[in-house]
């Protein structure tokens, strides 16, 4: 699809849709007073069971010094804790606390609800087709 045929380019439609979902997800974090970076940091830590700060920064695509601020806020709230890396005494790992794991489950449920609402305009068949197409594009 090109702009000359009177339709918006597919790339613009895809980006607009992604921005709309990101905005919905960001809004869904308000009850927990979490930023999107904080929620994503919690997910990274959960995925890795524990993670070095550099790993979290890389996944968030932010500078390592910036991840310190994100993690400080989560640690102050008792959602993560820093522990020594047993394989390298100079390094620190970040792990979820029980409170962090519980909060993340609530946040993920809200996110799933927002996603379901957003995608509800599509039939089950259309959603399956969209998922198949997006998996093809996933690097």
Automatic annotation (TrEMBL):
Q: Name one Pfam family in it.
A: MarR
Which residue ranges does the record assign to the HTH marR-type domain?
A: 7-139
Transferase found in the keyword field: no
Note the PROSITE patterns from the entry. HTH_MARR_1 (PS01117), HTH_MARR_2 (PS50995)
Q: Which GO MF terms are attached to this record?
A: DNA binding; DNA-binding transcription factor activity
Q: Which UniProt keywords apply?
A: DNA-binding, Transcription, Transcription regulation
Q: What is this protein called?
A: MarR family transcriptional regulator
**Species per Swiss-Prot/TrEMBL record:** Pedococcus bigeumensis
Phylogenetic lineage:
Bacteria, Bacillati, Actinomycetota, Actinomycetes, Micrococcales
């Amino acid at each position: 699809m090109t702009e000359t045929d009177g339709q918006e380019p597919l790339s613009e439609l895809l980006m607009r849709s992604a921005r709309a979902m990101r905005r919905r997800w960001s809004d869904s974090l308000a009850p927990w007073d979490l930023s999107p970076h904080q929620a994503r940091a919690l997910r990274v830590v959960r995925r890795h069971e524990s993670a070095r700060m550099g790993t979290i920064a890389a996944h968030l695509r932010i500078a390592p010094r910036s991840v310190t601020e994100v993690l400080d806020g989560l640690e102050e709230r008792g959602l993560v804790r820093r522990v020594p890396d047993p394989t390298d005494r100079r390094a620190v790992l970040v792990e979820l606390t029980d409170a962090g794991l519980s909060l993340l489950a609530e946040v993920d449920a809200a996110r799933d609800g927002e996603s379901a609402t957003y995608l509800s305009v599509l039939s089950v068949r259309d959603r399956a087709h969209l998922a198949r197409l997006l998996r093809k594009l996933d690097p």
